[in-house]
Amino acid sequence: MQDSNLLLMLNAIGTACTVLLAHSAFQLPAPATMQQKRALRYFRLALVGWALAFAIGSLQLFSANWPALRPVSILFANLTYCSSYFCILVAVATRYQYSAIGIRTWHYAALLALCSMLVIALLDNFLLRNLLIPTLCTLLLGLALRLSYLPAKATVQPRHRGDQYLRLSLLLLLLNLLLTNLLMVPLTASGIPTSTRLLMFILLNGILLTSAINSIFHYDLTEKIRHEGQTDALTGVYNRKILPQLQPQAADCVLMADLDHFKRINDTYGHDAGDYVIQQFAVLLQHAIRPADTVIRMGGEEFLILLRQTDISAAQQITERLCRQVAATALNFKGTPLQITASFGLCPVGQHDLTQAVQQADQLLYLAKQQGRNRLVRS
Hints:
- It is a single chain.
- The protein contains 12 helices and 8 strands.
- By secondary structure, the chain is α/β, with parallel strands linked by helices.
- It folds into 2 domains: 2-229, Rhopdopsin 7-helix transmembrane proteins (Up-down Bundle), CATH 1.20.1070; 238-378, Alpha-Beta Plaits.
- The strands form 2 sheets. The protein has a 6-stranded mixed sheet with strand order 1-3-4-2-7-8. A two-stranded antiparallel sheet has the order 5-6.
- The radius of gyration is 30 Å and the shape is elongated.
- The relative contact order is 0.09.
């Protein structure tokens, strides 16, 4: 009786601890993207599954008084146990957009059905039941760990330190799974209480997974704040705060661009019209450059374009085409037609550092303004 009370207390402690861990995951702020939200949802479900496994495992302690309770508790404990690992797999796949693995709802239903049949078929075979179910979970966790090491799709944000913590946590979960479920099966068959093993195992898993969840979504939020701090709110391009972080080899040529007679637009049509013109000018610049190039709003109506893998002659052709495109673009602000032009200053980085090249391009832009605007001046 004392052993039963002790095991019941251990399960109660385990349930409370995993509930608190799950609760902490539910306190995380909402991620920025739908993809991250779905991943967080499945991570939370994994923690909830472990808490349920603890709670359901406690029912087995009363099986001596109610024999019919034992098979039911074993069945549902194993189902929630396997479901947690499936949720981890789906969370990792969702986070990195590995849709090619084809996880769908019917796969989840098939997994539950398979686990149910395994548990029911092996209900009275302690050794096999405690070997095959963890093996299935090991395969799910191993696949999740494999996905975390594959190159992410282009639509996924660059990985950060939180993703490294996730990989480490998945590896530790896998080791914990192997040690406490596969290697210790002969020991548990010899009489080590299952509830004690379950307490250590699930509690450690919950701590590891909760730490990983908090790490990756903390770094997601940090990256989001950092990106927002480097992004211009009006146009969506980078702002000048990103310049100190750029390496000298960030560009082969730098191009300064500035709208002509912008003050006249503001004075005549208002600042809303001016904001509209700046937004459209930023769109024109982004469409005119290549994916490897970078557009930065320096302030007001002035933009910096970093051209990579481009010599001065090719950069001149790009800029002259852009100058003609801007002049030929007819804008319309609330029914009012607006005609814009822009001036450009182009400088190769060459032997300069990036800051010197930007300063020289700015001086060349000033010369373009003096020479009549709507033109390019290059060094």
